[in-house]
Every structure is written in C-alpha cells, then in structure tokens.
Amino acid sequence: MTSKATRGRQEVEMKKLQKESSRQVTFSKRRNGLFKKASEICLPCGANIGIIVFSPKGKPFIFGHPNIETILDQLYDECEEALEKLKEEKKKRIEHTKEAMKNKGEFWWDEAIDDNMGLEELEAYLKAIEELRNNVARKANESMMCDVVADSGGYFDFGIAADAFNFDHCPSHDFGAAGQL
Amino acid sequence: MTSKATRGRQEVEMKKLQKESSRQVTFSKRRNGLFKKASEICLPCGANIGIIVFSPKGKPFIFGHPNIETILDQLYDECEEALEKLKEEKKKRIEHTKEAMKNKGEFWWDEAIDDNMGLEELEAYLKAIEELRNNVARKANESMMCDVVADSGGYFDFGIAADAFNFDHCPSHDFGAAGQL
DNA sequence: AACACTATTGTTAGAGC
DNA sequence: AGCTCTAACAATAGTGT
C-alpha cells in the first residue's frame, strides 16, 4: 500500500493498447469476464451461446453452451431456413408476374426463372455443408479434439503443437436445456 | 421513489428464471452487456471475436469482429491445421514403430497404416467444407443476408419471415485489424 | 414494449508479491 | 508467468413513467 493514485478500474479506452504486455494481460482478464457473462445468460435465460475468440496472437479460445458444434449447426439451419423462405418468396413473385403478364396478353418466357436457379444451388450447398461438417465434427471429437466446453465456465484452448495427444480434461456437458428452442 | 428495498443489482443467481417475461427482459439486457464487453476486447487488445446467441425462443443474434464469416473461416483453418499436425505426428509414430520392428527382426505389414487413413479423409472433408462455405457465404451476402455486424457495437438480428427483402442498413466493415494475427 | 433512474453488486487496472 | 488485493468504475434488477 505505497501508492494510492493510479489503481482500480480505469475508464475503458476504445483504442488499441500500446504495450504488448499489458495488451496480453488485459486480453486474458477480459476474455474471462466475457465467458463468465456468457455463462450468466445461458442457464438463467435458457439461451444457447457460442463464442469464438482469437487472441492478439491468433490463438483460439472457445466457449459453447451446450457446445460449439450445436451452435454452428443451429446457425446453418437458420441460414438454410432463411434461404428457403427467400426462395419461396421469389417463386411467388415470379408466379405473380407471370400471371399478370398473361392477363395483360403479353408474352412470357421462362428466362426469368433463372433468377431462381441460384437459390436451388444454394440449398444444395447448404445440405452438403451440413452433412460434411457433421462428419468432421464427429470424427474430430472422436480422434483428437476432445470436446470444447460446456458453459460450466471453463473453456477449451486448442492446444495444438506438441500436446496434440493430450486427452485429459474432457468435460461432458449435461445441461439439458429444458427445451425452449 | 416509493419503495427502496428491492432495487438495484441483485446477485446473479445461476438458475433458470421462472417468469417468462423477466427472462426475456433479462436476456436482452445481458445480451447487450455481453456484446459491449466483446467490443471492449476487440479493438483495445487486437482480438477477433465471433458470438452467436440463440434467444430463449431460438432467435439468433450475431456479433462479429471483423465479421462472423472471417471468424468461422479462421476456426476451420485452425481445425485443419490441428488435424494436419496430428496426421504428421501419427505418421512419424508409425514410421518409428516400423523401424523399431524391422530392427528387432519382426514382421511388418501395412495394415497399421489404416490408422492413418481416417485422417486423410478428414483432410478432404475440411477442404470440401472450406470451398463450399466460401461459396455459400459469398452468395448469401450477395443475395440476401446483407452482412452481419462489425464490432461497432451493433449486431445483426436475422430478421427472417416477412422482411426477407429488406436490404437497408448494410454496414461495411472497415477495421483493418493492424495485422497481428 | 422501451427508456430513465439508482441502489447495489460485479468487474477490473494496477500494484505488490 | 500467475496470484491476491482493492479503489474506482461499470453493469444491472427492479421500479417508475
């Protein structure tokens, strides 16, 4: 207790911290804070959250409730649904236009449908992605990645290089997520 | 200013909030807090963060710096790298074993290499994923999703149903991320 | 439903080990 | 590097409007 002035929380400056060392320390502290906040949303509110953080040096840290794969799958499902809806909207629009032109006695040719073709493609892409990434996720978990983290407050740090064979600390996630999604 | 007792911040109880209404309100407030915290890490620390939140009702909210696609790509790259490293380790191990057995005058047959085949497959899967999802991301951005959000504190709420044709508010992200990843 | 207020608790920067 | 401490500042639950 020598100095008294420059202690305690400072106002959060929204500019890049210049000192490499304090940037690293601040990063760790705030990342912990972020993950804690996330865990304070998941259970009390019944939400699912996935967080992917790349450190200043590019090291990845993952938080996931119930786990990151579920979140990514949910995201892709959401995209798929959105595209499906858009596709239907476009179809209806085209039908509508077609109908209107017929009624006005104008010619109709199917080239306009091309506008819709890109979307069919997209759907196929999304299906392929889902299949593929399910395979990868399963295999990756089986063979090396252990698991990322449940929202138990902990998180998984892809310890790559030399410890690729370390399988210790594989938490199982048992949050039932009482079914409101 | 009628009552004075039960106001202000309560201790964060780690159990599911029972009242549907306050669960929704609490979710919104804390989600905002979470995204703010994230933005207080990105710029000052030079980190990249992606957050995917599914509300109690399954509605998705995205935060991304510089944007969610970059984060997902980085994640897949990381996985790919990790698997590559693991593959090499396994190969070396097998070579080592092979060598040792030869030196001991025992027989060697190549069945053990099968242990390595799953990994080659995995690599192919990952390559396919990357290609496919790059296509999807590009097409989706072009055709409907506008963009998710930079870490400017805002975030994108997949407004699906009826507003699939609303293309307003498409922020461009211009954080150069001064290259420490 | 969404904002303003505010008592209270939570978070955290820097210091000291 | 990682930990504890703690002054200062931030976040937020409940209330009001």
From TrEMBL, chains A, B:
UniProt-recorded Gene Ontology molecular function terms = DNA-binding transcription factor activity, RNA polymerase II-specific; protein dimerization activity; RNA polymerase II cis-regulatory region sequence-specific DNA binding
What are the alphabetically sorted keywords of the record? Answer: Coiled coil, DNA-binding, Nucleus, Transcription, Transcription regulation
The compartments listed are: Nucleus
Q: Which GO terms describe its cellular component?
A: nucleus
Q: Which residues form a coiled coil?
A: 69-142
Q: What InterPro entries would the database entry show?
A: TF_MADSbox, TF_MADSbox_sf
Q: Which residues form the MADS-box domain?
A: 7-67
Q: What is this protein called?
A: MADS-box domain-containing protein
Give the species. Gossypium darwinii
